[in-house]
Amino acid sequence: MSLCETQCDTDDAIVALAMLRGRPALEVVFLCFVCVLSLKPQPDARICSQDIILRVEFLIKKAPNLWLNSRLYTPNLTDYQKCPSSTFKCFAAEIKVLTDEWKTFDNIPKFKLNILLGELATSFNQTESECRQCELFKEQNAEKFLKDLLSTLQFINEQYC
Question: What is the CATH number of domain 50-160?
């Protein structure tokens, strides 16, 4: 007979056994909790933008064939590094302007690229109080705008994917 059985009644033995099992279990739960808290947050899968890059590359190839004199507010990589969300909101608004203009001259497939860029903008947790309005960015031609968008997307993929 064990020591507990001789000195304790059955209820006390169950409680003692549960406490012996409970303490190691509690330690395991505590260690798991510490591990979960110490994990670094993983990047949002929506931030990886390879599909968007392919669509922008298509538009860059298409741009020289469309003799439009479009001028678009053009954020760049530096703007993205300071204000990622507002930068992509601007890219989304301007890509909508560009594709709407191009639809009148050529049969551009419906990419919904502005929607994808808008969704990408929401992936960044950012306050916009210190960020510039889209209309304050320098106006560039369509080709320069698309190249800046592409370089920003490629930078994001290098960071998060």
Answer: 1.20.1250.70
